[in-house]
Design goal:
By secondary structure, this protein is an alpha/beta fold. The chain has a single domain (about 70-320), classed as Aspartate Aminotransferase, domain 2, CATH 3.40.640. Helix content is about 40%, strand content about 15%. The protein has helices at about 25-35, 60-70, 85-95, 100-105, 115-130, 145-155, 175-180, 205-215, 240-250, 280-295, 305-315, 320-340, and strands at about 5, 10-15, 110-115, 135-140, 160, 165, 170, 190, 220-225, 255-260, 270-275. Strands 3-11-10-9-8-4-5 form a seven-stranded mixed sheet, sandwiched between helices. A two-stranded antiparallel ribbon has the order 1-2. A two-stranded antiparallel sheet has the order 6-7. Strand 1 (about 5) and strand 2 (about 10-15) form a beta hairpin. Helix 8 runs parallel beside helix 9. The termini are far apart. It binds pyridoxal-5'-phosphate. Pyridoxal-5'-phosphate (PLP) binds near residues 192 and 225. The site of pyridoxal-5'-phosphate has 13 residues, from helix 5. Keywords: Aminotransferase, Pyridoxal phosphate, Transferase.
Length: about 350
């Protein structure tokens, strides 16, 4: 017999058994199909994670070193503050904007540790929904499959701007610009900082300047998703150039970061949301609002991944040579990840895909 509950509205509805089946996440289906396939040349493109030559999970050496150090220090398991680990927040904002950048020097960045890239985007979406409920978000067509999910759950309306041109296997730059121009003034524009997923096509530096011009003219606010810092060029600094270009113009912007990919810390769920504001005072207010949202969603973030990143990026225990080895690792392992000989079926001579 089905239980029934009386809602306060007085409408009688079914109990928990009335909940229908949720749609399966598409990438789960791809991985299942991969496991079932017996072809010896098969490649799993369902999940983006490092693998060894034998297709086994791989942990970066710098991560192993940082964890060893953390064990030796016998670090505690106290709650972190709502905004996360201070050393992590400092390191992550500096990696993104540059320690000497005006936005860091002038204390105009509100950084809050997030639950990796997804959770940081979700926090950004919650902030936008709470303070700009009528705003619209523009997404590239195509984009990472979870972007629409995140925005839908945050009750944010979105539409698409043209991005991929199948004719040229490149960027539909004119389409992108005219769609961003046509959006209502003050919209949020979601941009992939580098290594656009799923196309692998990034604007050139000149195109980024024009994108920034249009966004500035229309008083839009960019929301960058930076998950692959280091993957596009093999250099973490160079891969932040799109974000840095916008920040150097004095624009307000939001940037969600993740260390799932570039440090292989998938299950640690470590990332951040950074909001570049027009003044230090505004940054303080924005941070206080992000903390209110985080407190209600998950109270405070996990510590382990934050310490790993702070140890690798922040304290620079591995110094310049350590960073170089991290970048080297990223380049090599990504290469292996794509295929054994580093090639796939695309025509690289006509494509600017990374
Ligand atoms: C473009 C993009 N954004 C965000 C994410 C979120 O990654 P995570 O939540 O694991 O940090 C991914 C993961 O594949 C991605 O490709």
């Amino acid at each position: 017999m089905r239980a029934s509950v009386m809602m306060s509205s007085g409408v009688e509805v079914g109990g928990l058994s009335s909940i229908g089946m949720g749609a399966e996440e598409p990438s789960v289906g791809i991985s299942a199909a991969f496991r079932a396939d017996t072809h010896e040349m098969k490649l799993d493109l369902g999940l983006g994670s490092y693998r060894t030559e034998d297709l086994q999970p791989y942990v970066l050496n710098v991560v192993n070193k940082a964890e060893k150090l953390m064990l030796e220090r016998c670090e505690d398991k106290e709650y972190l503050p709502i905004e996360g680990l201070a050393a992590f927040n400092k390191a992550t904002a500096e990696l993104l904007f540059g320690a000497d950048s005006a936005v860091i020097q002038q204390q105009r960045v509100a950084t809050v540790q997030g639950i990796s890239g997804t959770g940081s985007l979700r926090l950004a979406a919650a902030l936008i929904h709470r303070h700009f409920p009528a705003s619209k978000i523009l997404l590239s067509s195509p984009t990472w499959g979870n972007h629409p999910n995140i925005l839908n759950d945050a009750r944010l309306p979105w539409s698409e701007y043209r991005y991929y041109d199948p004719e040229t296997v490149g960027l539909d730059f004119q389409g992108m610009i005219s769609d961003i121009k046509a959006a209502p003034e003050g919209s949020f524009v979601l941009l992939h900082g580098c290594a656009h997923n799923p196309t692998g096509i990034d604007p050139t530096p000149e195109q980024w300047e024009i994108i920034a011009d249009v966004i500035q003219e229309k008083k839009h606010i960019p929301l960058f998703d930076v998950v692959y810092q280091g993957y596009a060029s093999g250099r973490v600094e160079a891969d932040a150039s799109s974000v840095r270009l916008f920040a150097a113009r004095g624009m307000e912007l939001l940037v969600a970061q993740s260390y799932s990919k570039n440090m292989g810390l998938y299950a640690e769920r470590i990332g951040a949301i950074n909001v570049v504001c027009s003044s230090p005072d505004s940054a303080k207010r924005v941070k206080s609002q992000l903390k209110r949202l985080a407190r209600a969603m998950y109270s405070n973030p996990p510590v382990h991944g934050a310490r790993i990143v702070a140890n690798v990026v922040g304290i620079q225990i591995f110094s310049v040579s350590g960073k170089r080895s991290w970048e080297e690792n990223m380049r090599k392992k990504w290469y292996v990840y794509m295929t054994k000989d580093g090639k796939n079926g695309l025509n690289w001579s006509i494509s600017s895909q990374v």
